[in-house]
Task: structure prediction
Amino acid sequence: MALKRSHTTELGCIACEELSDLGAGKEGWLVENPNILCALDTHSIALANRSFILVTGWDDGPRRRIRPDLSPIEAEFITSLEWLVFDEIRVIAVGTSCGYFLVYSLDGQLVHRQMVYPGRILKIRVRGTKKDLTHQTSSSEEISIVIRGVIARFDGSDIQNMLQEWFQETHSQFWDEKPRKRDSDALENTYKRLPYQLWNVNKYGLCADAAITGIMPPPLMEIQSSQQYYCAVTIGEDAVISAYRLSENRSKSLVGAILSKVVPATFSTIASFSKMIWRSEQTSTKKSEAKTQSFAKASPLTCLKDHPRKGEKLTLSPSGTLSAITDSLGRILLLDTQALVVVRLWKGYRDASCFFMEMLVKRDNAGASSSYYEPSKSDYCLCLAIHAPRKGIIEVYSLFITFFL
Result:
């Protein structure tokens, strides 16, 4: 019988009193509690429950508590958590059950607040570009937000410009001046609304998870234009895998165009007439609801239905060309997101989690013996790590060997 071997490298210790607010001290508090969210950065970790965020590093640095301003009337709570990295600027992105996208600085200041779409935000995905494989510097290229049946895309440059403006404004104050605390209403009026695209991707049922995999060519026999098309992959209960071509244009029918012009004018006329009849001096104290952005065009490309199999988790590779999908039957599908073909299938991995990573594989070449040798891009290989909790193991597969051997 082979003995189990454990290969671990100590990064640091995050044990602190603040973890008790997240339920630390109870067996399985980090794994078995569905309300605990985790986001890893190079040297930090962010943990959150429904109303509280704790940011701590691997060293003995300061630990930050963040308590978002959530609506008690609508029972709003935190549903997603992710790091946003733009060179030296690092912030935390938060999604809520009411569809709000929040951005917090590491010292707990609310930087941005914006309604994306009414509904629970399931996932905040960041697709970035590494400047160098040998360093841990990276920059977020796009941010996608997944809601049940809806996916939104923010351009990374828009968020970066917003953060730079906030950073300059914050550091332009005198050193002895305390930062001004803004409430959510004042903040939404202070900063401009970030532009984004919104698509409805529920043609084959509500999605449990989704991801924008990258730019794709326009459809055949279509006039070339300056707009870009994106490929989106969704998973869910009705369809294990679905793919869409996302367009930047908001195509409207003739009826929709007429309604978009007539309905606002009619509503304005009725409102003006009602004010003439009912001259009430009291004004409503309820904040007007944020307007929902209209959907852009999403064209279905393919769909895989295999009842009773259901898609559960979707993990995207750094480049977006591969995706690992776990389903309810304990299988893992490796999807080529460019050809939209399943290229590998693993069985017997219930409740598994996947993670793409780059590993140094070419160590025995002539240059590696020199003390001045630095690994190049060709020395690295994309690998897929699979954590099988029921087996109690972690398996790492080299995708280069999988495809070419």
Summary: The first strand starts at residue 37 and ends at 40. The CA atoms of residues 23 and 29 lie 6 Å apart. Helices lie at 156-171, 184-190, 254-277, 399-404.
